[in-house]
Amino acid sequence: MRKLLVANRGEIALRIIRSARALGIATVAVYSDADAGATYLAAADDAIRIGAPEAAASYLNSDAILAAARAAGVDAIHPGYGFLSERPQFARAVAESGFTFVGPPAAAMATLGNKVAARRLAVQSGVPVVPGLDVADPTAARRLGAAVGYPLLVKAAAGGGGRGMRVVKAERELDGALEAAAREAQAAFGDGRLFLEKYLARSRHIEVQVIGDQFGKLVTLGERDCSIQRRHQKIIEESPAPGLDAAMRTQMAEAAIRLFRAAGYVNAGTAEFLVDGDSFYFLEANTRLQVEHPVTEMRFGCDLVAEQLRIADGEALADPPTPAGHAIECRIYAEDAERGFHPVAGRVEYLNLPAGPGIRIDTHLATGLEISTWYDGMVAKLIAWGADRAQARTRLLGALAEFSLLGVGHTAAFLYDIIASKPFGDIDLSTHFIDEFFTGWRPAETDLETALIGCLLAADAATNVDRTTPSRAPAESRSPWERLPRFEPWGGR
Ligand code: ADP
Q1: Topology of domain 204-443, CATH
Q2: Ligand 1 center from residue 202 Cα (angstroms)
Q3: Ligand 1 pocket, 287 CB below 6 A?
Q4: Does residue 159 line the site of ligand 1, with CB under 6 A?
Q5: Which parts of 277-407 are beta strand (E)?
Q6: Domain 3-102 has what CATH class?
Q7: Where in the sequence of the chain do the CATH 3.30.1490.20 domains occur?
Q8: Domain with CATH 3.30.470.20 in the chain
Q9: pTM
Q10: What does the pLDDT look like over 286-325, one tens digit per residue?
Q11: DSSP at 476
């Protein structure tokens, strides 16, 4: 492999470009019109425009991506996560066009990527699944409800990103939920097929990292606890899963290997489980690099992207390194944390990224970067490693306090409060953590940004510059300098 096209954007594009470069592989980035000024483009050897801002016209446009790959003369394509990364048709098209796909074979992806097919294979492989049904037949669903009790969860076979799920609290809600979920799944995934599971009301999400080469070697690299979620989407992840029973850890790793072996899997993937008391159940498989892979890398001292590239290039996988310590990641989103966590756009006016022992930040943020709302709003992943969970937690809190971004709303203060909280410290983890402990969360009045604005105001007052008249129309003004009258660090209250 001499030249790689990265079919993605943002932090993960930059992350992959860096690993490829370290292996001496040249890189080609792609971009939509919304990303024409993005920082990850400068990190690549070449950058090719693939279309309009709409994902369907650019990052989901496999024809445009394959055309870019041909024009650039690459050998391989890495899909990152999201976008085309879990589409077997894309993996197949890449291979048929003569490029190496950095990921699993299309057939393994198709089996594990469909939740119902993966569930069946798990049962055949002796892997426990959540009590449920492969089909959403109303009569069978009623029998299931009577047998295992409500609530039930209706899910889309093609689902992803927490979409297409509906909790059914009682039998009378069943028909309506099935109809609505089928409609929603059809609209979101072009596939209305559903299945049903018992709803495990207070469980933990724990997943196993799997990686295998083309010669049949398949290993696990520990597990990650991803229980802290918002709208069924992970926001804080850690490795190892704290307090997990040693026997269950071993059983989950063995189950993951059995399932991925049965699927004929090659390259990096993840087996997700729900842990409810003394039992664990297979949830779904992700046939790609996970957003939260850095916690595994920090613990094992490895580079999963480099391993992916080597495996795709036909190299044999070495034995995994011995893990050490504990790592915690949190995802920072461009959102208005004060008003319902809505995605926000804006220009990065000021940026301070944390550093220090055990700190890693995966981001494409840079001063002057325009952040749009065209794509997923995650703008940075902040990761801390420590000799134990307490040290990783303290380091992550320090890094979050040091993180400063002006010009775009973000969720760092929310993450700080969660990680600093007693239930997080006490490992009182479940997928309902946010609902249980953080509903109605509001940012504190005084935070770092306000303090910084205070310093700027003080300097301003000293030089007696009149900045009360914005130089641009208020609608286009995003600079904190031009919003100064809104901040009152020492006035009034
Ligand atoms: P997606 O692919 O849409 O992310 P998953 O099947 O991975 O869907 O589930 C995402 C999250 O939804 C889980 O981490 C968990 O919080 C919740 N969830 C899924 N299935 C169940 C279940 N049977 N009971 C309780 N919660 C569930």
Answers
A1: D-amino Acid Aminotransferase; Chain A, domain 1 (3.30.470)
A2: 12
A3: no
A4: yes
A5: 279-286, 326-333, 335-336, 342-343, 346-347, 350-352, 359-363, 370-371, 378-386, 404-406
A6: alpha beta
A7: 131-198
A8: 204-443
A9: 0.90
A10: 999 999 999 999 999 999 999 999 999 999 999 999 999 9
A11: G
